[in-house]
Amino acid sequence: MKLVKDLRRYHNPVFNRFEWNEPSFVYVVVYRMARKIREMPNCFFPIKVLLNIIVVPIYAFFSIFMGISIPRGAQIGAGLRIYHFGGIVINPKAIIGENFSIHQEVTIGVKNSYFDQVIIGDNCTIGAGAKVLGNIKIGNNVTIGANAVVMCDVPDNSIAVGVPCRIIEKKNKTYDPNRGPFN
């Protein structure tokens, strides 16, 4: 279950405790509920409508309150971790892999057309203030640095930094979810 893997990412291995003081985990729970309702088959239409009446206002409240805009159309794999919520905007057409970490003030959006689609692989981290724009693909095990502007494809096992981004190959290409993406 995706939600269980998401919540495991909020475990702090240094202090061996769950990060209850990071309220973004509430948003992740609400996003997963809203996304699951959206994915329900139409044969459950009356139940789907009833659940939407309950969950969508809660989802909208937390989106406004926390400053996070992740539409239910965005496909995000298990292991989502939001650090320092606020100012996060993700295009509804985005497809994001597992173990995705995102920091505050990040935009994953369009460059030229509403139909632009960003595809992000597994084990990726996007630093504070970064912008990922256009119809591009970000590979697996990629770190996008703070305030980087990415408008081109980024290969696996890379780091993207700067404006416009410069791509650097990672020295250590393994990912340990307990240590984070910067090992």
Description:
- This protein is an alpha/beta fold and 183 residues long.
- 25% of the residues lie in helices and 22% in strands.
- The protein has three helices and 17 strands.
- Strands 5-8-11-14-16-17 form a six-stranded mixed beta sheet. A five-stranded parallel beta sheet has the order 3-6-9-12-15.
- A hairpin with a 4-residue loop joins strand 1 and strand 2.
- Helix 1 packs antiparallel against helix 2.
- The radius of gyration is 16 Å and the shape is globular.
- The model has no long low-confidence stretch (mean pLDDT 90).
Shape: globular
Instruction: Give the averaged pLDDT, no decimals.
Output: 90
Largest sheet: 6 strands, mixed
- The percentage of residues in β strands lies in 15-25%
Radius of gyration: 16 Å
Order of helices and strands: HEEHHEEEEEEEEEEEEEEE
**Strands of the largest sheet, in order across it?**
5-8-11-14-16-17
The residue ranges in which pLDDT falls below 50 over 5 or more consecutive positions are: none
Count up the helices.
3
Helicity range of the residues?
10-25%
Structural class from helices and strands?
alpha/beta
Number of strands: 17
Distance from N terminus to C terminus (CA atoms, Å) equals 27 Å
Please specify the SSE layout and strand pairing.
Layout: H1 2-8, E1 11-12, E2 17-18, H2 24-39, H3 45-66, E3 68-69, E4 75-76, E5 81-82, E6 88-90, E7 95-96, E8 101-102, E9 107-109, E10 119-120, E11 125-126, E12 131-133, E13 137-138, E14 143-144, E15 149-150, E16 158-161, E17 166-169
Parallel strand pairs: 3-6, 4-7, 5-8, 6-9, 7-10, 8-11, 9-12, 10-13, 11-14, 12-15, 14-16
Antiparallel strand pairs: 1-2, 16-17
Helix pairs in contact: 1-2, 2-3
